[in-house]
Amino acid sequence: LNFAIFAEIYNFPSNFVWGAASASYQIEGAWNVDGRIPSIWDTASHKNNSSVVDGSTGDDAAMSYYYYEKDIQALKDIGFKTYRFSIAWPRVLTKTNQVNQAGIDYYSKLIDRLKEEEIKPMVTMYHWDLPQYLQDLGGWTNPAIVKYFEHYADTLYKHFGDRVKEWITFNEPATFCDGGYSWGWHAPEIRTEKQIGGYLCSHHILLAHGAAYHLYKNKYFADQQGKVGICLNTGYSFPANENVTDEHVDRAMHFGLGRYANPIYSVDGDYPRVMREAIDQKSTDEGRRWSRLPHFTTAQVESLHGAADFLALNYYTSSLIQPYSHLGWNPADSDSEIHSFHDDNWKRSSSSWLVSVPEGLYHLLLWIKDNYNNPLVYITENGWSDLPMTIEDDGRVEYLREHLAAMSRAITDGCRVETYTVWSLTDNFEWMRGYTERFGIYAINFTDPERKRIPKNSVDLMKQVVRDNFVEVEKD
Ligand code: PNW
Fold it and tell me: What distances in angstroms separate CA 178 from CA 140, 175, 182, 418, 429, one per listed residue?
């Protein structure tokens, strides 16, 4: 049986950039060496009865602090031209906001080595490892943090901006703001009533992003000529049945993606109107003196509006949606009053939240094009989980094929997607799931002191895609 005969081919533009992604706390290890100060993930994973399911930590992880050459080799073997990694804030600045030279030296070395191999560094400034001393001040719920982040960004531009031309301020605030400050299932594990903490977090994240963006434009752009964006994650919301309208879909999208994207990328700026009105009204009804969703001043709205050179998008999965009003019951206390769930037919990964919906990526990209005036988009994460040491990772191969095909179709339909970095280069510390769920295209046995990077079948797929600039998908 010749596979090619039964395959459809999806092409990519000739200048398309392929790569892989990672994050500091998930891979580096070396948590207490060379002046690194504690982060909220050290606190969460070290405490007694931690919420990490297997009781593990990122203390050693993939040991990329020592074995970064193995990561570079793994990228090189595929032919990847970009590497998205994050810098650990607790490695590069001390508690008194002085430079920690050892931390700077580590990233400088990594960046230089990547450039020698002609792999472009794409740097995330914040992938969830907040210095613990800042959390002790309230973390992202305290407006004072905006200044700390701006100074951190300044430090990164100053030391690395000569070589780094793609900056991502934040990774997935939708995950860590509500996870960390509303529901409490992510570090710093704080629960607050009715998302008050999560809304404060997203508000200050947006202001901190704006500050970092304008700092770059005013102080560094003339010399460094790079781009600054923010990384947002969302699925697409499919109507569960014919009674669910486009308005419901837009409402779900605005409460999810729009909460972060509208202030920066929409035509008018500021939070989505549906969100503003709903939360203000509920806050009044709850007897509050002010809204749970903070307000931007007019100057802040204007300053955030257009404050990005690209949109970094993480896409994993999608949902079916139905408004509460159709259900006649309240499945959850949510401000959007939209219930989302999975179709039983969607293929399941090893992560309970992750089902395969390639069509969602296609619809999401078109929704972004239509709602945000067709911004430049980098897909900075997309990936699939399986069990440890699954080298024959056929589930991932199929997931990646179908999602790359969906991306190709969106590009054909006018979306400006120019880069794709798969999540993740290697197996790593998967947050509260510890080492029980694996996202790498290279496997790691975490009891192996050498942390050998072992190619899974998806490495062969990515080699072929990079070489040919097309992907084949089996026909039904
Ligand atoms: C992302 N969801 O997190 C993160 O950026 C990575 O650090 C992480 O390892 C990866 O995806 C896999 O989990 C997400 O529930 C966490 O939809 C949860 C969701 C999406 C992304």
Answer: 11, 6, 5, 30, 20
Ligand 1 center from residue 238 Cα (angstroms): 20
- Ordered DSSP codes for 414-467: T-EEEEEEEE-SB----GGGTTSSB--SEE--TT-TT---EE-HHHHHHHHHHH
Distances (CA, A) of 84 to 22, 79, 129: 6, 14, 16
Give the tens place of pLDDT for each residue, 94-133. 999 999 999 999 999 999 999 999 999 999 999 999 999 9
Q: What is the DSSP letter of 131?
A: B
Known catalytic residue at 381: yes
pLDDT digits (tens, 9 = 90+) for 366-379: 999 999 999 999 99
Let me know if 150 is a catalytic residue.
Answer: no
The model's pTM: 0.97
Residue 39 Cα to ligand 1 middle (Å):
19
Query: What count of other Cβ atoms lies within 10 Å of the Cβ of residue 418?
Result: 16
Q: Which of 381, 398, 437, 472 is catalytic?
A: 381
